[in-house]
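Data availability (excerpt). The following record was deposited with the supplementary files.
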Amino acid sequence: MMKSEARKVDSGGKPKVLRREESLRSRQYRGVFVRVIYEWDTIEILRTEMDPGSMVEDREIGNFPVIHFVIEGSPIFLVANQSADLIPGDSISLRADENYRISNPASSRSIILTVLIKDPGQQKNGEP
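Predicted structure:
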C-alpha cells in the first residue's frame, strides 16, 4: 500500500481534493467487515458491513463519541440495557463513555456508516 501525506490538488479555482491513501485499511472478523474510509486528526469515518447473525461491541470501534448511520439492513443497537431497532436512514449518536453493542439478527447484511469524533490527544482503545 502506498503511503502518502495529505496533499492538495489545485487546479486553478476548481475544488481541492485531499487524499490520505494510508487511511484505506480494513479488517474482517466474525462476519463483520470494517473499513476506514477517511481518517484525520479529529474525525474518522468507517463503513461496517455485518453479515446475518454477527455482532460488534463498542470497544471494537473505539472509545470516542460516535454517530452511526444505517445505510442498509436493520441492525439492533443495545445501549444501557435498552434496544433500538434501526432501519436505513436512521442514525444514533452515542457518547464515548456509553457501552453499546450492535447486532444483525436479520437474514440480510447490514451496512453502517460511522463517524468517530476524536480528541487529538486521545488514542483509540486507550492505547498510548
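Summary of structural features: The first helix runs from residue 58 to 61.
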